[in-house]
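To assess whether ligand presence alters the predicted conformation, the chain was also submitted together with 2-phosphoglycolic acid. Input:
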Amino acid sequence: MPNSERVKIIAGNWKMNKTIQEAIDFIHQLTPLIRDAEAKVFLAVPYTAIHACSEAANDTSIVIGAQNMHEAEEGAFTGEISAKMIKEAGATFVILGHSERRQFFHETNALINKKIKLAIKHHLSPILCIGETLDEREKSMTEQVLAVQLRECLEGIQESEAASLIIAYEPIWAIGTGKTATPEMAQATHAFCRHFLKERFGEKISSQMILQYGGSVKPESAAALLTQKDIDGALVGGASLNADTFARIVNDH
Ligand code: PGA
């Protein structure tokens, strides 16, 4: 499937930002700005704002999701949030395995794999984040690292389940640093990921899967990245916090 047939998905990842009121105000500001957008717009909002955001986004094309969830259905896990809870609150997708979760909360590929399976069971589309450190890139280990992440995180996932899966390639050295991979570098890595997915799920499914790029995506860098053959969208952190800036990324490509 040529790139032009895959609808682009631009997802904002707000991380630990915005109160409920700030989130609602953002959606009201963003809605008219993206009225003519060809890309789909996802917002991964804090747990506390999922319900209010899904109501505020009800008559819009904006899709609301969560940034994480626990790997168990329910139980004695003080402070944790389940798949069923985020779903009921209005989330339709969930970011899993973000590098900040891997780094600060010690999430492993095996744990992320459990979360992916549970998300799929609850009909939540996972956005699986993968990416290498600067050290790994400099040692030419990028493909090796990504192959391990993809293999272990997708262990046991069936072909029929893979279609709802989004992969976000986010080089860790580009997250929040202002350093973006060059479009050529990002395309080469995306092509590697798509090839891996082709071997894993077959030509048809892999050609339909959405592969997002993430890491310091800004209005200035978005268009060159988003016109690459295997880049089907972006996962945007810092630049998704301002409605005007985010709308430029959604519209300008
Ligand atoms: P950034 O974050 O755009 O601020 O680099 C991206 C992400 O962490 O998803």
